[in-house]
Amino acid sequence: EFLEFVLSKYVETGIEELGQEKLPDLLKIKYSAINDATELLGGVNRIRATFFNFQQHLFATA
Q1: Global pTM?
Q2: Are the C-beta atoms of 18 and 59 separated by less than 8 Å?
Q3: pLDDT > 70: percent of the chain
């Protein structure tokens, strides 16, 4: 669900939405608070790894 949200923001806004510095903002927009996001998504390390793996996969197929 979070990756679908990130992808929709990428389509809406462009590549800037995939910058590492955008991750906290995306989490806040989607889940209202980073603590809520980490609880739902399995912790900060897992969220970061998922986000970066998504970027790699997206750019590898582009």
Answers
A1: 0.83
A2: no
A3: 97
